[in-house]
């Protein structure tokens, strides 16, 4: 658990995670469950992720795009703290991050990426943003930690809203289905 979040809990609070980032089987199940959910109840115009869910969603999106299937019209990644991984590596019970050098721009929908410069996992957020098309990608790095900007910074909230607004407006103008 992130230090930033520990301060919000008492010593007795229980937490829950949908998958263990070190266990390929649980990551594979999370990606497959997302796929089944979207297939059953979608399509959806967009997705908003926070923290570990960002890697799951980006993994799902790159897999779908490789298959020639649609994903979302836009995606908002808040404090991404896990990498997008190669889906086939999960099938082989391994976790292999998608190489940004080879996969840069693979996610071809409007995206917004917001993270803190003091987030201990800021590099994951930066790498994930590089997987997205630079013409459709909006990035804002605030001066805080692993969090969604809130009451502590009017400037960060305004910039975050502007990045999200840009991605959603671009999605309206871009035919992605």
Write a structural description:
- By secondary structure, the chain is an alpha/beta fold.
- The protein has helices at residues 3-6, 24-41, 53-66, 87-91, 100-103, 122-130, 154-173; strands at 46-50, 74-78, 111-116, 137-142.
- The chain has a four-stranded parallel β-sheet, sandwiched between helices.
- α2 crosses α3.
- The longest helix has 20 residues, at 154-173.
- The model has no long low-confidence stretch (mean pLDDT 90).
Molecular shape: globular
Looking at the chains present, what oligomeric state does this protein adopt? single chain
Low-confidence stretches: none
Number of strands: 4
| N/C terminus separation | 36 Å
- Strand sequence of the main sheet, in spatial order? 1-2-3-4
**H/E series, N to C?**
HHEHEHHEHEH
Tell me what portion of residues adopts beta-strand conformation: 5-15%
Q: Helical percent range?
A: 40-55%
**Which structural category do the helix and sheet elements fall into?**
alpha/beta
Q: In this structure, how is the largest beta sheet organized?
A: 4 strands, parallel
> Overall mean pLDDT score?
90
Number of helices: 7
**Nearest-angstrom radius of gyration?**
16 Å
